[in-house]
């Protein structure tokens, strides 16, 4: 077995181990427990953003620290014209050992794990991630977050439809996943309207839609909603006033149907959101609620 094959085997084992994590987010204490053939190989380095175990020749993982709820994360503005995500070098020296370790992962086509901070000391693991381009002039690597993106040539000309498709994959694999984790953590894993706790039934809803002005993937532009209330919110069946009280559309209030409509939708009219984040900076933005509520009234 070549050294590249051996390192690929460690990565495969690490990713399968992460598949079995007890919850979506992980911390350093948990990821440092990974073992391969009886040898402990911590998957994260708290002192460095790039993790290369001493026994390996190429980087195993990268890390991005937590960004406060009302601030844009550092990766948010680093999608290239090709739709691929960028990851900045360590410092400004292309030959820094950590940059060399990432370059080796690129040259050997080895997958990486990306730990993205979603709360202080808590990370969402994104994997597998591949380096598909190296640009010393801009001090950055191009990343593929999806198997299909591995066939995109960084910086190559492409039509607008292809570019939008690649960018959509980037946002689905990174931005939206991290946004969901941050919003669910801020709301303690409960629907803001009905307080249901089952994570498989919860979504991170945008107040202002992604792609619009003020539609950033930040927690104050998010609401933790169950799938029923998310769909009702997105389809202007119910709106949320700037004071966080709920407004159910008049024709829905007059409709006669089963217990779900009566209790789950009609029954919340003129009530307040049942759950809001304890941290003031994570609470829904009043300005965004006002903008979205105006859209709701116009649609009704």
TrEMBL record:
Domain HNH nuclease: 191-240
Keywords annotated in UniProt: Endonuclease, Hydrolase, Nuclease
Xref: InterPro entries: HNH_nuc
Domain of life, source organism: Bacteria
GO MF assignments: endonuclease activity
Name of the molecule in the record: HNH endonuclease
Organism: Nocardioides hankookensis
Lineage: Bacteria, Bacillati, Actinomycetota, Actinomycetes, Propionibacteriales
């Amino acid at each position: 077995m070549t050294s590249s094959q051996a390192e690929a085997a460690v990565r495969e084992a690490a990713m399968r181990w992460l598949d079995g994590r007890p919850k979506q987010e992980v911390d350093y204490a948990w990821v440092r427990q990974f073992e391969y053939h009886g040898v402990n190989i911590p998957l994260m380095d708290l002192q460095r953003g790039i993790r290369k175990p001493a026994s390996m020749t190429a980087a195993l993982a990268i890390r991005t620290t937590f960004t406060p709820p009302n601030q844009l994360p550092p990766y948010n503005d680093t999608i290239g014209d090709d739709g691929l995500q960028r990851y900045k070098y360590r410092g400004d020296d292309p030959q820094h050992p950590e940059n060399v370790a990432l370059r080796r992962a690129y040259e050997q086509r080895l997958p990486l794990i990306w730990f993205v901070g979603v709360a202080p000391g808590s990370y969402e693991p994104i994997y597998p991630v591949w380096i598909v381009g190296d640009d010393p002039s801009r001090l950055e690597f191009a990343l593929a977050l999806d198997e299909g993106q591995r066939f995109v040539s960084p910086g190559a000309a492409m039509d607008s439809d292809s570019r939008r498709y690649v960018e959509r994959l980037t946002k689905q694999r990174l931005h939206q996943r991290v946004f969901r984790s941050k919003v669910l953590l801020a709301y303690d894993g409960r629907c803001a309207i009905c307080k249901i706790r089952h994570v498989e039934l919860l979504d991170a809803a945008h107040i202002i839609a992604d792609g619009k002005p003020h539609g950033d993937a930040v927690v104050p532009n998010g609401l933790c909603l169950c799938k029923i209330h998310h769909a009702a919110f997105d389809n202007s069946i119910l709106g949320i006033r700037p004071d966080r009280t709920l407004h159910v559309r008049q024709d829905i209030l007059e409709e006669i149907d089963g217990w779900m409509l009566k209790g789950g939708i009609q029954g919340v009219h003129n009530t307040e959101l049942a759950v809001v984040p304890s941290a003031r900076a994570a609470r829904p933005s009043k300005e965004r609620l006002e903008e979205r509520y105006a859209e709701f009234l116009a649609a009704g």
